[in-house]
Design brief:
about 110 residues, alpha+beta
């Protein structure tokens, strides 16, 4: 990682603005909350942040896949077995994805 590097993550990005005593000064932009903060990170803190963001992106992809397959007719029980989750968790994921899709559709209809 070097000065000026910009790393995108779901809902925002961070940019290396400087180095002080072997630590990174980063600007974190959160597009979802419309906020910008500066933080000082060690290498391990940056790696931890990147790992968390990757896991969130992986879970978002998994949840979208579960929702689409459930809409296509696969049962919650079969999806639960395949993804090593409980049928209740599958139901919660599908309900949350449905709410997200509904709010996305409402926002799109307002901007037209």
């Amino acid at each position: 990682m070097s000065l000026g590097d910009r790393i995108e993550f779901a809902g925002g990005s961070y940019e290396v603005r400087g180095m002080v005593d072997g630590r990174y000064v980063v600007r974190i932009r959160n597009r979802d909350r419309n906020k910008e903060v500066y933080k000082v990170w060690t290498e391990s803190e940056r790696n931890d942040f990147d790992k968390v963001q990757k896991n969130r992106a992986d879970n978002a992809d998994r949840n979208a896949q579960i929702y689409e397959r459930n809409l296509a007719g696969e049962t919650k029980a079969s999806l639960a077995r395949e993804f090593s989750l409980s049928p209740t968790s599958i139901g919660q994921i599908c309900a949350k994805q449905a709410r997200k899709e509904k709010s996305r559709n409402i926002r799109q209809s307002r901007t037209r």
